[in-house]
Amino acid sequence: MDQVFSGNKFEIAFNISLLLFALVVVISSVFNLIDTERNFLYAILGIIIGSGSITRLYQLNKNT
Fold first, then answer.
1. Digits of tens for pLDDT over the chain (64 positions)?
2. Is the CB of residue 50 less than 8 Å from the CB of residue 16?
């Protein structure tokens, strides 16, 4: 039982760190002063990673 709880805590921490990383990627691509063509792709990538992390956190919260 304790091992399952520890794994669950790790999944939550991992998904929160992924969400923070995605937010940083989106924010940095939006406020980038040098206009490159990759900013839009980085923003989309950050949104996809963030939405996957939010979905997984919702699933973990729903199961508890």
1. 455 567 788 888 999 999 999 999 988 888 876 767 778 888 899 999 999 999 999 998 887 6
2. no
Run of H or E including 48? helix 39-63
Is the pTM for the entire model greater than 0.90? no
| AA identity, residue 9 | K
How far is C-alpha 29 from the geometric centre of its chain's CA atoms? 15
Q: Are 50 and 27 in contact (CB under 8 A)?
A: no
Distances (CA, A) of 50 to 4, 39, 40: 25, 16, 15
Contact indicator for 40, 61 with CB cutoff of 8 Å: no
Distance in angstroms (rounded) separating the CA atoms of residues 64 and 61: 5
